[in-house]
Amino acid sequence: MNQQLRPPRRVVADRVTLAHGGGGKAMRDLIEDVFTSVFAPPGMEDQARLMHPSLLEPGAQLAFTTDSFVVSPMEFPGGDIGTIAVCGTVNDLVVGGARPLWLSAAFIIEEGVEITTLRRIAASMQAAADEAGVRIVTGDTKVVGKGSGDGVFITTSGVGVIPPGRNLVAGSVQPGDVAIVNGVLGDHGAAILAARGDMALTTDITSDCQPLNHLMEAVLAAAPGVRAARDATRGGLASALNEIADAAGVGVEIMETDLPLRPEVKGVCEILGLDPLYLANEGTLVLFVPPDQAETALAAMRATPEGQGACIIGRATASHPGTVVMKTVFGGGRIVDMLVGEQLPRIC
Predict the structure, then answer these.
(1) Torsion of CA 93, 95, 209, 68, to 10 degrees
(2) Exposed (0-12), middle (13-18) or buried (19+): which is 229, by Cβ within 10 Å?
(3) DSSP conformation class of 298
(4) In angstroms, rounded to a whole number, what is the distance separating the alpha carbons of residues 252 and 274?
(5) Side by side, which strands form the sheet with 61-69?
């Protein structure tokens, strides 16, 4: 005889309490009502059991990544911590050539957080997962006392498959390869800075938070010779380029006049003495492609919603290996080094 399914559990409280992390009915109510009702994972075991046809292809590789998100404020123009948690992990897989498939999500929640806030975050995560075509299949929830955390922290891990023949690694970049970005720089960092309200800035800048797997698939189909890619998150474009230059033992030259920056972002940086090259992005990548495939890759990017602002910003060079140099509007050269610290903490 089939067992009758019980009605779904519901959270009664308006705010998270320590009981919601205690392993009992209150915790079960929170998990089922706020999270699994939205994510719909396959079963309620302590692990996800997964299979995908692409895993059976000879030469396919499994890609795995993990990241934690502590952005402040948790909600900002263009997204929230849930959006970043999905997009950030998806994009970490994407720049290695992987097709993202599954995510896990672990939550550390401070006592007192409103249940409605958690519902918004969960909804944002699912919306971003739907956009990327991935599934959130397992996770965990912990509650800490008031004052022991700061709202909600999220750790997401991602699993994807790198198809046979793909090998995007920073060390493969060669002199002459062309550097391309898919859109404007610094929007996420500027949006977070304005949302904090510390500087009384008024701006319409929104975060560029978005998954980039559809863009990357289009580029790789059109230009299979892509050497390497990096998402320009913490440390911005400058850090991404330095990582590639160092790994490949090449120099990188970029043109200041070619960098895609909104006037609003430039204005915020001028007021606060920040460098937009180091501002974080959450939906921007830079890739290096052989010169004979550069225009093809650029056209493929521009044909996607995520890459309509794509442009060439520079190239790899045999001179000054391991160093990034920007040709300024005045005709000189400026070394773009790695930051020692970080311009803005709690940015993602």
Answers:
(1) 40
(2) buried
(3) H
(4) 22
(5) 61-69, 152-162, 99-110, 135-144
Three-state secondary structure readout of 157-198: EEEEEECCCCCCCHHHCCCCCEEEECCCCCHHHHHHHHHHCC
Q: Which two tokens stand for residue 331?
A: 């005709």
Nearest residue to 64 (alpha-carbon basis) of 157, 148, 147, 142: 157
Please, which contacts does 292-296 make with residues 24 or more away whose CB atoms are closer than 8 Å? Answer: 292/225, 293/223, 293/225, 293/226, 294/178, 294/180, 294/223, 296/222, 296/223
pLDDT at 339: 81
Instruction: Give 295's DSSP letter.
Output: H
Q: How far apart are CA 154 and CA 119, in angstroms?
A: 14
pTM of the model: 0.94
24-58 burial by CB neighbour count: b if 16+ within 10 A, else e?
eebbebbbebbbbebbebeeeeeebeeeeeeeeee
Question: What is the C-alpha separation between 190 and 212, in angstroms, rounded?
Answer: 20
d(CA 161, CA 21): 34
pLDDT band at 4, cuts 50/70/90?
very low
Tokens of residue 141, six digits: 């929830």
What are 160's strand-pairing partners? 63, 100
Count of residues making up the chain: 348
How confident is the prediction for the chain on average, in pLDDT? 93
Alpha-carbon distance of 263 to 213, in angstroms, equals 28
CB-based contact 143:46 (threshold 8 Å): no
What are the pLDDT digits (tens) for 106-121?
999 999 999 999 999 9
